[in-house]
Structures are given as C-alpha cells and as structure tokens.
C-alpha cells in the first residue's frame, strides 16, 4: 500500500521513509522470526490502531487520518467487497457468503423455537465495511428521546441536541426526495437515496397509512411517527457501505492511513501494572504479529466481537474469565446488556395482480439492463424493503416515541425461489413445505413487524480462551413477556394495513395456513400470534449494548461518556456495543454518528 513519492510531496515521503525503516516485532505461531516490512505488511508502531473496519471503524480511521501527523492502522479480519455486494436487492445473499461471520445463538427457551436447530442466526459482517456490506441499508436515526435518555443515564454530551450535528456531518442526502430538509444535509461521505423503483405496492402502503390516520412523514425529520418510502445508504442505485463512503475515497490520498484485510486481532496488549493498552496481537497469513500503539487502541469490532476481544484480553466479569484461565486485568460487566430488534418477517399477503417482486420476476433481462445502465428498477430495492412505518401500539407511553416498526417487503417468502431469505432467517425446509410451497409463485407481499424497544437483555460469554473460537451468544429474546405482547400488537397492525381500502382492489388477503407448532390455536388470536412470535421471529441484526456506556458510578458501565474503557488507559470502544439502550430505529447510521463524535473526542483529548 505504500505510495510512491511522485505527487505526494517530499515531506510526506520523508515521514514514510522514516516509518518504513522501523523494525517489525512479529511472532510466528510456532517460532519467533523477525520479518521485513514488505513481507509483514505492518510497521512496528502506529499512533492509533483501529480494530475492525465496520461502520464505526471506517469512520474513526477516516477522521483520525485527517491529522497528517498521526499514523493510523485499520485492521479488518475480512476482505474487500465485490460487485455482488453492490446490488441492494441481493442483500440477503451476502449472509450466505464469507462476508458473514456466521454466528448462531445458543438454544433458548423463549425464542427461535421453530428455526433450524432452535437457534437464531446472528449475521455479522466480516469485510471492509463490516455489516454495512450485507445489511438492508435502511437509513433511520432513532428517536430524539433515545438520546435524551442516554444523557439522563449520566452520559453528558449524548442528548439529541448534542448528537444531531454528527448525523448531518456524515450525510449526503442531495438525491433524496420528499424529505424534511431541515433535518438533512448534503456533502457528507455517506450517500442516502430512495430506491429507484416505482412500486404500486408502496403507493398503496402509504395510502393505507393515511387511511389509518398516520402522516406520510420523513422518519428522520421532525415527526418520527408515520409512514414513508424507505431511505437507504445507496448511490446511483447501488449500496454505499461504510467502506465505500469513508475509506475508498481517501486511500490514495492519505499515506499515513494503512488498511489491512484478513488480519485477525486476537488480543489487546495491556500492561497489568500500569493498566495501559500498548498494542495488539494479530494473525495474518497464519503468522502472529505484535504491533504497538503510541496513543490508543480503538476497538470497533462490533457488538459480538468487541466484548469477545476485551474478555480475551483480561477485561470482563472476573468469575467468567477465571473459569477459562484468563488473567483478570479489569473486572467489568463486558458482554452484558445485549439488546436487539427482533422482527416477525413471515407474514404473506396474497394479491390477484402481478405487482410484487419475486426471484423469478427479476430475471427479466430488461430489469438487469435497467439496473446496470441506469441504476434503476427492482434491483435497487434495499433487501426488498420498499417502505416503512413507525407506529405506537397500545403499550406505548410517550408521545411520538414508537415501539413498533412495520417494514413493507416487495415480495413474500413464498416467492423466495432460491431460498436466500429463508437461509438468512433460518427457516427450516419443513416449515417452508408446510406453509409456503402450497402458494409458490403466487404474487404476494410482506409486512415485517419490528420490536423497537425490547425489554429483554442477553449477553456474550467466552466458551474458552482460544481466540479463534466463537463466543457464546445468549440473546434471551422474548424472555420478558412484554416484548411478546408488543410484537402481537404489531402483527395485528400489519394485518390491519392489508385490510384497508387502499389494498382492496388487489383482493389482498392474509395467507392463513397455520404455522407449525401453533396449529392447535385459533388462527389470528392473540394466543396464536404469541406462539408464532416465539417460533419464527428473527434478528434484524441490530445487536448493541455489550460494552455499555455510563458514568463512573454506574456498576454495569464498561466505557465512560468519552468511550474510554474504565480503568484502562489508551483503550476505547467505538461501535454499537457502547449504546446503553437500543434506539427506536435502524442502527447503522447511529453507529456512524457515535464514531463521528468519538473521533472529535479523541482529537480533543490528544490536543490537550
């Protein structure tokens, strides 16, 4: 990655030459040779080492490298994107690829009972761009009250008025339509766009919202409650991942930023006496290296991998670490407070016209050409999601604070010919054969219900002290009965949307073959939906909270309000794991906001 001096400048080249001349400390898995810089692809030391090139790490690496006096190393376990990851409609396909860590939850008694192996799929991105390479790209920021609540918990500087500017800093919504312009910005790295597809189902969805008394609103504008067309992280109809937004535009212009792929960090190096982080151990090409950080190690590995890495490094619950023979450097509630948005994505609404999108319908050559040449058509639908609605059920208590989201799908699972969506959700073949095969090929759309403010809490634990082994993921979905009650109300709201006059001309009806495991209950009763929720609700991939942010006197907090790991110098966590409570919205933009704010705090701290 080292740039030639031509066009860069003699001063920069001199700095590079000095840095390039440093020795590299390396450790082979079975021996201790010292490798030359070209073979190792690392220098001996950097000012900042960022672990993980997801939505948080990409932003931090970008912003810290704005300072031309700082060397920044960004380490990513995965690889770069390819052309398939660009296609919004094919988002589900990426979860069956090597871009997904492939995690699965432990078996639970409260949820995922009807999924394969009674375990939930936990898709997490393993690529430059992290999960933003395979998510459904929906762009929402949560609710104002989410951030005011963060501040009320003792996290000064995290209220909505404090964080709003950081959402705007990232954003380029210059190609957005029908938005609340006072709440958006142009010129940022992250491109926002509506799907470039004129859908008759979306028009009816918005009309249904009006019929039910909701406003057609901008979910990122003044009013959160309402129905809207999807906003997505796209540019010219193609995915705009964190990598494409924050890394690719500058890799040839910032020589002191080094981005390295297929590099697995296995440990944060911490002096047990001074309690200061001074580097990392990383495996690349089956060789283990030690790389030092002059200023800070910044962990942006995500809500699963960040607590895993901290615990492997001696920061975590004392009792749990001692069980797997890890020396405890700091006793902390790492891995606790796991939260997620659960979604019920298995409803199918049959219609009598070919107005939906299926695996078969998009094989039309004209659709392919329209996408390739113009960046328009059904292939621009982000994960198949056309529109969304933030609503309140009868259990919501605060004004304009939704507890449920409805996401309109361009097709339903009976049209999932290639099985990519079923594979993402973990739907068994037996379920598919019983419920969807009888209506295979018939036009249908879906409305997924998403639990916005879950009360259930899970945790991440170590299985053992081998850094290459997965951690235990215990999400405890629906452990709190209130979560089931809210989800049931959301399902009833989705069915109500389908039964408005707006959908009447399509002969719309809810597919009524009962779900396996719930056949003995009256279809559409609260008891039936409660059973179905526990059987086949699945993650939306919005895992947060496992390195909780909180004030010094909070016993469960792992990081302080400046995201510094408590009790350890030179170590921060910058990703979704720091959220004390999950937001009422999709989390990708929120993680970028956190990283934007963290970058400013890091700059402030080192200017002092």
TrEMBL record:
It comes from the Eukaryota. The gene is LOC108561928. Belongs to the GMC oxidoreductase family. Pfam families: GMC_oxred_C, GMC_oxred_N. Residues 1-17 form the signal peptide. InterPro entries: FAD/NAD-bd_sf, GMC_OxRdtase, GMC_OxRdtase_N, GMC_OxRtase_C. Keywords: FAD, Flavoprotein, Signal. PROSITE patterns: GMC_OXRED_1, GMC_OXRED_2. This is Glucose dehydrogenase [FAD, quinone]-like. Residues 125-148, 302-316 form the Glucose-methanol-choline oxidoreductase N-terminal domain. It comes from Nicrophorus vespilloides (Boreal carrion beetle). The keyword Ubl conjugation does not apply.
